[in-house]
Input
Amino acid sequence: MSRAEIRVVDGWRSRLPQSVRPYVEAAPLAAFFLGISSSFPYALIGATLTTRLAQDGISKSAVTAFALTFLAYNFKFLWAPIVDNVKLPVIGRFGQRRSWLWVISLLVVLAVSFLGVADPNQALLTVAIAAITLGICGATLDIIIDAYRIELLEPYQLGTGSGMSQYGWRIGAATTGAVALIIASRFGWSIAYISCAIFALPAILVGVFMGEPKRHIEPVATKGLLHALIEYFSPLVEFIRRQGAWLVLSFVLIHKIGDTLANLTLRLLFDDLGFSNEEIAFYDVGFGFVAFLVGIFVGGIMYVRMGLKHSVLVSLILMAVSNFSFAALAFVGHTNIGMAAAVGFENFASGIGGVTVVAYLSALCNLRFTATQYALLSALASIAGRFLTGTTAGGLIESMGYVNYYLLTTFLAFPGVLLFWYMIRSGLADVSLGGAAREE
Output
């Protein structure tokens, strides 16, 4: 971009309100489009697949067992060092981050098509294999997108960039869910899934127009197997050497248990309460999307005015309480107003957490190991909840009912709140931060 073009862009931005300008900078906008592509594989093996299986008459235990396909997202840190350190042949000349971004995006498209053509009524095992394949590809796409985003954003942009990433993630997930439901009702699930593969395009284009992140630190060349093993474990060793690292990891592990247990079973609740596809699309996808956007906006304001630590604490409390709203909906039964209230509150709280908690996890990363450390932290954030959902959620719902189940998820959310409060009081929330939170 020439100096004249830069002046034109700066002049256009200067006419916007002060509160809006950070959101139209190039890096946060790129984070928005990366978020769109990051979300759609997750949406297709999450709520969308749950609805598809439920409508095909698959048992609740089998449906909730599909939550185990998300475990690829929880174990992605195991192969994240490959993304950090291995240079791809031929295409690698375009840069470490961009080359991986483009290759994995293509693999995601192929995996989505595989899941689309698999028929649950004919071969449920094939559907499971396809879902696992998409989970692995989607998790790997998350690894590279998160690393690209963190390295692209300057430290002062972490809050804004996290918010924009969550805007993109939610728009991508909501649009994917709505498009899949609408197309499926007219042309079938196979066409619906294959059509949604277009959501890989935004990430590909970001790589084209934004180039390789300037804050990316090139990997150290390994010499022999021993050196390679040392480099493989370096991200974890660097993190656990920090003061209070084990307490931070414990917080990351438990803070989303209640939230994950609740969210991965919501479509079962809606189906059993008799909500139609159109009602789910309007209230859960549409109305929930608007509430999430409002939450992200409020979260951005909280981040600026309250600071990172206290905005995280408030968001954790709101996300814990939001689970109670689904217990109330289950008690009341089929009511559109009740669904709107429950979905609205939960998405509003999640939107705030999407800004504050993601910014906190990003700030914990060392730029030398961005992909691996963020993959580890984001994986730990939901592994316990997903494992419990896949192994016990269906049985718990059948044995104790939806009301008691969502009351249990509310209770399970509060240990994370108390632990983070202690981290603030002890100062560990500050000393554990990594290089991504500091100016170069």
Summary: The chain has one domain: 22-437.
